[in-house]
Amino acid sequence: MKELSGYHGVILEIDLASGKIDKKPLSPEDARKSIGGRGLGMKILWDRLKKPGLNPLSPENPLIFMTGPFSGLPVPSASRACVVTKSPHTSPIKSKYKFASTISYANVGGFIGPEIRFAGYDGIVISGKASSPVYLVIEDDRVEFREAKKFWGLKTEEFDRKLTEELGDRRFKTCYIGPAGENLVEYAAILHTAARAAGRGGTGCVMGSKNLKAIAIRGTRVPPVADHKRFISLLDEARQGFKGAALTESWRRYGTASSIVTSSAASTQAVKNYWEGTFQEAAKISGIAAEQKIWVRDLACFAAYWPAKNQGW
User: Fold this and answer.
1) CA 134/CA 22 separation, integer angstroms
2) How many CB atoms lie within 10 A of CB 58?
3) Within the chain, how many helices (H) and strands (E) appear?
């Protein structure tokens, strides 16, 4: 997409029902007005949902994996990807539509977002429903449907091991569902690396409704940068901005678990799916408690910077 730097300009569209695969151009106007994975995902979903009241578990509801312009580049906090869809889990108190629900933009870190970009895409839009369980293998321009019936029913940790063995290449990045998604539990999540989740809004339920067990992706391309020298200069400036900040150190050391105690104290903790805002035993599951009792090693997201303790930046 020559009109807009920072993007490949390609959206990969996959119809699970027909097996049709398209590479559609990303609208430069959409990319400018709806920046980031959440913005672009919302715009694509808006364009696809032609009328209100669509059943979120119908084949017409798209499941969208969308990235932002920094994804795949060594920018702090830019490893995220958004999974956008019409939620099967949320609904207004009153509506004239049987299947009234809101949108979901579940956010996931790790490596799946950058790998989508490495494969040459700014996002993936999945529609339709496979006639039997399948998983997708995407490697640059190659997109392959593979039978997943043998994996149906496996829990995520076991499936993660078996899928890696079948692929025979640990460079593939994967996301997948477990029995909850397969059985259309309305708040099911999509897992990535068996340790990260797109957990908001029932994205795993939508994935299960499409008979899609997993996506495995790897690529060899680098996201484009308009002015490489200026990019490096601004990247160094951004990194320096984090230097010595106590909050940065806390999040770097404990991840999102660093906020468990403070958010509970502020009554903003997501307890019982936001039915409550505090958790009396928050300290027992905090990042500090996890580090002391169960941690084996750190596992950072893509492009995270983890210097040795007490060695500075």
Assistant:
1) 18
2) 14
3) 10, 12
| pTM (2 d.p.) | 0.90
CB atoms inside a 10 Å sphere around CB 95? 12
At 250-290, the pLDDT tens digits run 888 888 888 999 999 999 998 887 789 999 999 999 999 99
Nearest to 135 by CA among 206, 212, 191: 212
3-state secondary structure of 97: coil
Domains detected in the chain: 10-218 (3.60.9.10), 243-293 (no CATH)
> Tokens 């490495």 correspond to what residue?
118
